[in-house]
Amino acid sequence: MEYEKIELSKHEHKPLQVNPIKHSQPMGAALAFMGIKNCMPLMHASQGCASYTKVFYTRHFNEPIAMYNTSVSDITAILDGGDYSILMAIENITKKNSALKPELIGLHTTGLTETKGDDVRSVGVHVEIPYCYVNTPDYEGGMESGWALCVKALIEQHTLKSTQQKANKLLLLPHVSMQPAEVEKIKECCEGFGFETLCLPDLSTSLDGYLSEGQGKLGTGAISIEDIRDLGDCATLITIGTSMKIAAKALLAKNENIKHLHFNHLMGLQMNDNFVASLIEIRQIQPKPLLKRWRGRLQDAMLDSHFLIGSSTFVITGEPDMCVGMCELLQSVGGTINAVISTTYSKVLEDIKAENVFVGDLEDAQVHFKNADMVISNFHAERILHSQEKHTALLLRGFPNYEELGNQLKNDQLYEGSTYFLFEVANKLREVKHHG
Question: At which of 289, 307, 334 does a domain end?
Fold first, then answer.
């Protein structure tokens, strides 16, 4: 089926969101800081903003969440000033719990403090602990851009310039929609080619479902502030998701000799073939037999699932970098994408071959749900589908998912995850079409 190139508006077409899909930039930044070892994510906001974020992630991951706030209000923001609130919050939190030894303070702003115009940069002069600030007003962008801005800030403020390179040192910059298990799998794949692999942020040891002592007090990501300082000597940089290009640009400014490889996603046969071929070319090492075997399994899954998926229509909602990967994988086995409703605008949306691609909310999406065999969305779509006469399959992906356990261990990436994804989609379609 041929599609005309769609001209997308960079802004949503209406002033008010009804049943929004989008989440705020501060939420994306908070999640990113949780992926740094011994980081204290500090939201420069009221208690309500921070409490919502904490509850949101607690319910999604079913994990204790490291989240702190400066507890400002509209009055104190004006009378006391931003500096005072931030410094007092750090002092109170660390004094209250003497065992809390953060190695990084990750401060991210909100709409209230951005509107006030607090000078969060200058606060770092008065903080003895390493400090990173990122401007993330929640009246701009969304969760995906907040995550990316946080990574950019970490590199700009803490990575040292370098002219040296370690030949086997590789840095991964994953987009926000990738679960901890997916990050872990991609790291393992790169390590299988002999790379010393780092990931920024690295949630694979932070929100991965591993029960540990002191859980929920500080971020427990697998990358430390010392690692971040030394990222300038990487030989290879891999970005996964268009949103992460701004962070890649920041790192290349630290060392222009770094080889940068970009992939919009790592779902499906073609994109993973390109990814693995790139690793082979750099390291001159053949992939392990298990990786080849998973490629064969994915090919078989594509054959097995194409009868069901190829005769079905889909509606997908979520963050742009997540949507593009799912679209291309489903289309590779004949699926028809009726509509993609994105949280925010991204240039990658222009590449999606679908009848309808736009920025919107679940009210906009509901019109397209009626003609779909499957909807891929967060759990908020469930109650809309239950009210319809037509029985439409629902695959829960993106944030939040309060209905299912084990979100942190879901894997849709690489050959292995793509195989599982296709089978999950096909089985849900079979249940609707044959038993609905």
Answer: 289
**Has residue 193 got a pLDDT over 80?**
yes
| Structural domain of 208 | 166-289
In a domain, 159, yes or no: no
**Those residues with Cβ within 8 angstroms of residue 188's Cβ, 6 or more apart along the chain or in another chain:** none
Query: Does residue 326 sit in the same domain as residue 423?
Result: yes
DSSP-derived pairing of the beta strands 374-377 and 356-359: unpaired
3-state helix, strand, coil in the chain (%, to 5): 45, 15, 35
Summarize pLDDT for 60-98 with one digit per residue, the tens.
999 889 889 988 876 666 666 667 788 888 888 887 776
Beta bridge partners of 43: 69, 108
Residue 413: which of 179, 74, 86 has the closest Cα? 179
Instruction: List the single range of 71-80, 225-234, 366-375 with lowest mean pLDDT.
Output: 71-80
**H helix or E strand, kind and range, residue 337:** strand 336-342
* Alpha-carbon gap, residue 190 to 176, rounded angstroms: 19
User: What are the helix (H) ranges across 240-268?
Assistant: 245-252
Q: Is the pTM of this model over 0.90?
A: yes
401 part of a folded domain: yes
- Mean pLDDT, rounded, for 156-163: 97
201 and 324 together in one domain: no
Element (H, E) at 394: strand 393-396
Look at residues 289, 308, 332 and tell me which one is the last residue of a structural domain.
289
Do 207 and 180 meet the contact criterion of CB atoms below 8 Å apart? yes
Mean pLDDT of 233-245: 98
